[in-house]
Write a structure and sequence with these properties.
The structure holds 2 protein chains of 2 kinds. By secondary structure, chain A is mainly α. Chain A has helices at 2-19, 33-59, 63-87, 91-106, 115-118, 129-135, 154-167, 169-176, 184-201, 203-211, 216-233, and strands at residues 143-146, 150-153. Chain A has one domain. The longest helix of chain A is centred in the first third of the chain and has 27 residues, at 33-59. In chain A, 30% of the residues are buried. Chain B is α+β, with helices and mostly antiparallel strands. Chain B has a single domain, classed as Roll (Nuclear Transport Factor 2, Chain: A), CATH 3.10.450. Chain B contains 7 helices and 5 strands. Chain B has helices at residues 2-22, 26-42, 47-61, 64-72, 81-104, 165-179, 185-195, and strands spanning 111-118, 123-130, 139-146, 154-160, 163-164. Chain B has a 5-stranded antiparallel beta sheet with strand order 1-2-3-4-5. Classes of the chains: A mainly alpha, B alpha+beta.
Chain lengths: 253, 196
C-alpha cells in the first residue's frame, strides 16, 4: 500500500512538473533552475575531489582488469534491461539480452568475459524504466539535477525509483531481500563501479565540454536531453537530432 | 540536323563530364580534412602552431557563418543588423578557438570514414568512427555536410554518438539569452570572455 501511495505521489509530481515550466520553449522545462544549479555545482565539486581522481586512477589498472570490470557491470545491467525490453514490447531484444546474460554469467565467468559477443549475440543499448515510461507516452516533466546521480527529468527520476520498488532484480537479491549469498554493499559497489567505469571512458569528453562551453550547465542539460531522446527512440538514425527546417532560411556562402 | 544533334550531345557530355570531375564527394571531403587534421596533431609542431593550422582547416571547410546563425535560433530574427555583424565576428572567433581547443589535446586521432547518406540536394551525412584506443572506446562521428554547391561542400554540424554539437551550442546560447531577459548583450559578454 505504501508503495502505491509513493508512486501516486511521484506521478502527481510529474504532472505538476509538466505544468510548472517557466520556459516558453517546450524543450527547456527547467522548473527549478536555482535548485538544479546548486546541485550541479555540488556534483561538480564532488566530481573534482572524488569521482574524477578515482576514474583517473582506475585508468591506470591493466586493460584486462578494466575490460573485465566493464563487462561484469554491463552484464548485471541486463537484469533491468530485459524486463524493460518486455515492457516495451521488444521481444527480440529481450531474447538476445537474456541469452547474453545466461552465456556471459556462466561461460563468461560472472560476466567478466564477453563470450556472448563472440557467439554473435550483439550487445544492445541499455533500457531503463524511464525509457519504458516514455515509450508508453509519458511526458518527461521538468528537468532536474539529482545529487550524485546528475542530470535527469521527473520521468527518469520515477524510473530510478521503480528500481528500488522491486523493478531491479539485482537490487532485490542483494539489498532488499536477505538471500544469504549477497550483501547490501554488493549492490552499491556494482553501481559505483559502473559510474567510475563510465567516467573513466569519458574523461577527455567531459573536460572538452567543460573547457569549451560558455554555459556549462546548459551544455550538460542539452547533451543529457539529446542522449535520452536518442535512447528512447532506439534510433540508429542519429542524424534525427537536428531538424532540417531550422536551417531553411540560412542560405549563405 | 545531325550536326546540330552532335553539337548538343557534345555540349551535354562535356557539361556532365565537367560536373562529375569538379563535384567533391562528401565522404572524400571529410576523409581529406580529417587526414590533414590527424597529420597536424601527430606532428612534432608546437601546440600554438598546431592550433593555427587547425583553425585554418576549420575556416576553409566549415560553414562558420551558417552555424553561427543557426546557433542563434529564433533570436537571429530579433536582433539588428549591427548586432548581427558583431555576433558574426564574435562567433567566428569563438568557433575557431573552441574547435582547435577540442582537437589539440588528441595526440594522434584516427578517423575512419565508413559511409555517406544523401539526405537531400543540400545535405549529405558522412558517417565515420574515431578509432578506439586503450583509454577510450570507439566513438561514432557523423558529419552534416552542406552540399548546395557540390564543388565547395562545407561542414554544418558534427554529431558525436548522436549528440549534435550545433544543437548543443544553440541550446547553450539560448539559455544565456533567456536568462538575461532575451538580451543579446549577455551572450556577447560571454563570447568576449571566452575569446580572451
Amino acid at each position: 500500500m505504501k508503495k502505491i501511495l509513493y508512486l501516486i505521489i511521484l506521478f502527481s509530481f510529474i504532472s505538476f512538473s509538466a505544468n510548472a515550466s517557466d520556459e516558453s520553449n517546450e524543450n527547456l522545462k527547467d522548473c527549478w533552475k536555482g535548485f538544479n544549479k546548486a546541485t550541479f555545482a555540488l556534483n561538480q565539486a564532488l566530481d573534482g575531489i572524488l569521482f574524477e581522481p578515482i576514474a583517473r586512477g582506475y585508468r591506470h589498472l591493466p586493460a584486462g582488469i578494466r575490460y573485465g570490470t566493464s563487462n561484469m557491470v554491463s552484464n548485471i545491467s541486463n537484469l533491468v534491461t530485459i524486463p524493460n525490453n518486455l515492457l516495451q514490447g521488444d521481444f527480440k531484444s529481450a531474447v538476445n539480452n537474456s541469452m547474453r546474460l545466461i552465456v556471459n554469467t556462466t561461460l563468461g565467468i560472472v560476466g567478466i568475459f564477453d563470450v556472448a559477443s563472440s557467439l554473435g549475440l550483439e550487445q544492445l543499448d541499455r533500457e531503463d524504466y524511464g525509457q519504458t515510461l516514455a515509450s508508453w507516452g509519458m511526458e518527461s516533466g521538468c528537468y532536474i539535477v539529482l545529487p550524485i546521480l546528475g542530470p535527469s527529468t521527473a520521468r527518469d527520476a520515477v524510473g530510478h525509483t521503480i528500481n528500488f520498488l522491486g523493478g531491479d532484480p539485482w537490487y532485490n537479491i542483494t539489498s532488499k531481500n536477505d538471500t544469504r549469498y549477497f550483501k547490501d554493499s554488493d549492490y552499491f559497489i556494482s553501481k559505483m563501479t559502473d559510474g567510475v567505469d563510465f567516467r573513466a571512458k569519458n574523461i577527455e569528453a567531459f573536460d572538452s565540454v567543460e573547457k569549451n562551453s560558455v554555459d556549462f550547465y546548459a551544455s550538460v542539460k542539452s547533451l543529457y536531453l539529446q542522449d535520452r531522446e536518442r535512447k528512447i527512440s532506439n534510433s540508429g538514425v542519429i542524424t534525427d537530432a537536428m531538424d532540417d527546417s531550422d536551417w531553411e532560411d540560412i542560405e549563405i556562402k | 540536323m545531325k550536326i546540330k544533334g552532335l553539337v548538343i550531345f557534345i555540349f551535354l557530355f562535356t557539361f556532365n563530364f565537367n560536373y562529375s570531375v569538379c563535384a567533391v564527394e562528401p565522404s572524400k571531403f571529410i576523409s581529406k580534412i580529417t587526414g590533414k587534421a590527424s597529420s597536424i596533431l601527430a606532428s612534432s609542431d608546437t601546440k600554438e602552431n598546431k592550433i593555427l593550422k587547425l583553425k585554418k582547416i576549420a575556416a576553409d571547410s566549415v560553414d562558420i557563418k551558417g552555424i553561427g546563425l543557426y546557433t542563434l535560433g529564433k533570436h537571429r530574427k530579433l536582433i539588428s543588423e549591427s548586432q548581427k555583424s558583431t555576433y558574426n565576428n564574435l562567433f567566428r572567433e569563438y568557433f575557431l578557438k573552441s574547435f582547435s581547443n577540442r582537437l589539440v589535446d588528441y595526440s594522434d586521432p584516427k578517423i575512419e570514414v565508413k559511409s555517406e547518406e544523401k539526405l537531400s540536394e543540400k545535405y549529405t551525412i558522412v558517417r565515420s568512427i574515431l578509432v578506439a584506443t586503450d583509454k577510450r572506446p570507439e566513438v561514432k562521428l557523423d558529419w552534416r555536410v552542406y552540399t548546395k554547391d557540390p564543388n565547395n561542400p562545407l561542414i554544418r554540424d558534427l554529431v558525436i554518438e548522436g549528440l549534435s554539437l550545433a544543437r548543443t551550442q544553440k541550446e547553450e546560447f539560448n539559455s544565456i539569452i533567456i536568462s538575461n531577459n532575451n538580451g543579446i548583450d549577455a551572450l556577447f559578454e560571454n563570447l568576449i570572455e571566452f575569446n580572451k
